[in-house]
Amino acid sequence: MKMNELDTLFDTLFRRSVGMDRLPQFSQPMKSFPPYNIVRVDDEITEIHVAAAGYSADDIKVFERNGVLHIESDGGAAEGESDSMIYRGIAKRSFKLTFALNHDVEIDGAACDNGMIIVRMSKSTKADNLIEIQSSLPALSHDKQDSKVLEMKTGS
Question: Integer distance in angstroms from the first to the last C-alpha of the chain?
Fold first, then answer.
């Protein structure tokens, strides 16, 4: 494997991972839509800031499934889609961003404020759960997906 291919592999792995930021970055970030930043607020809190100009909280879905954070939009209905629109320079297209979460990262919530989607995460403070051993377990239903949808709050 050439060094450039190795850089690309590590870049793809690390730029989509939260809670693994102590590992080195080997190459420049790849381009994506919409642009985003991953910000370490302090040792316990990390935020993902997604530039979402023209999108409302209703246009964007944020959820966690199987240790992966998903931020996505189908683009929503374009407002002002009429003969009065002379030029549309603000892109409002569909997108899907995914971020692998470390096992000790919890999602605290998401907010939509001034064209930015902010997802806040923190290190888990849960202690190890002691699992009581029972004589039998209830039947499992395989119909449910293991996902958690986050309700976004809008800024004032």
Answer: 51
